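Checked the freezer inventory, then went back to the computational side. Two predictions to log before the end of the day. The first one is the construct we discussed on Monday; recording sequence and tokens without edits.
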Amino acid sequence: MHSLNELATALEQPSKPFSQWQPQHCGELPIIINQQGEWLYGGSKITRIAMVKLFASVLCKEQDTFYLKTPIEKIAITVHDAPFIIVNWRFEMTEQGQVLCCVDNLQRTWLVTCEQPLVVQDYQGNDVPYLQLPYGCSARVSRSVFYQWAEIAQADKQGYFIQSAGQRFYLNV
């Protein structure tokens, strides 16, 4: 059995030192991440997953703008909702208890923890959970995953919740 820190390290994507990078804003690229989490360039879908993963690895949000940020460039792009979608999940047992592992549409795994909490936000008039990710990014929980969670959710006076890493994360406002 692993500790929560060991599991997080095993799943961790190579992290970029965004706080150390202070490039000048270089304009905008015609890249759009639509509401389905698809990346488009000039209206055409980017189909090379390796290219999308590369762009995603340098994506950050500063103030209310999303950027592709490198040590020498910071280029704005358009994101219609959240840049990523949670499409699958599983529980992993750790020394700290059961941890919810969420898989996004780029097949990256994220842990639901105090550092990466689930928060409920409005999406098209409905309250929907989002997973808060590093560098100001987030991933909207897909409808199918939300319904699966609804089946296993526990309830208390505050509402329905999923427990992960010893914390309760509510699925309603």
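The second is the one RB wanted added to the comparison set:
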Amino acid sequence: MTEAWHRPLRHIKGGELTGDTAQTSGMRRLEAVSGKTAGSEKVWMGETHVGPHTNSGDHHHGEAETAIYVKSGHPVFVFADGDEEIRLETEPGDYIFVPPWVPHREENPGDEDAVVIIARSSQEGIVVNLPSLWAQVDRPDS
């Protein structure tokens, strides 16, 4: 029997990322580390591409916390605060934290692809698409 600390590391090459994950209009998610690809139990990691002059649909990631690293481009992260849309304009090297259940969207006003690296506190890429940032979010604890 193999003990937990003797399990092998998993190497997922950049060219092996898969788009076989939940998607949101206007963006393309690629899965690297997940329960399905690497046997992870508590983390999901991958990247998202948003083409030039494109917005994603509004969405949230359920109970998962999401950490984002801006690899290239100048994506804008948009969320609601009361009746107002808040826009976080980013550049390569910036990080964004998205709390659980928070509706948001990514926008790319630039002329090049915006590529971000994502890590989530779940082993699956949870995505719940919404009709707007102000849509009712069904949380199991509410």
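For RB: The helical segments are 35-38. The two ends are 43 Å apart (CA to CA). Let me know if you want it refolded.
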